[in-house]
Design brief:
About 30% of the residues lie in helices and about 15% in strands. By secondary structure, it is of the alpha+beta class.
């Protein structure tokens, strides 16, 4: 894997799901409210529209962080949906370096 930064890149997110397939029963993926198309709107539920990439091949997290996180969630669901229970959390804020 390409380190933690890979969790912003959809093509990489399936790798941990494959490794964990026979080892876990549940996985929680921490995402971001940036995955929503309009994360400034209050009263949002998990059914709200997600951000979308104009260029599906883009891996530029600086320019498309939210849309890439949404694609990563979709990739996790696709990779692990039959192997283990998938849950994700879209955090309001993330603090760190």
């Amino acid at each position: 894997m390409e380190g933690c930064r890979g969790f912003y890149v959809p093509r990489i997110v399936a790798q941990p799901a494959e490794l964990l397939r026979s080892k876990v029963k549940q996985y929680i993926f921490v995402s971001s409210i940036s995955a929503y198309a309009d994360f400034m709107d209050t009263g949002k539920t998990e059914k709200a529209s997600l951000a979308r990439l104009e260029d599906e091949d883009s891996e530029d997290a600086a320019a498309h962080y939210g849309a890439l996180k949404a694609k990563c969630e979709q990739g996790w669901l696709k990779a692990g949906h039959q192997a283990f229970t998938m849950q994700w959390v879209r955090k309001l804020d993330c603090n760190g370096p």
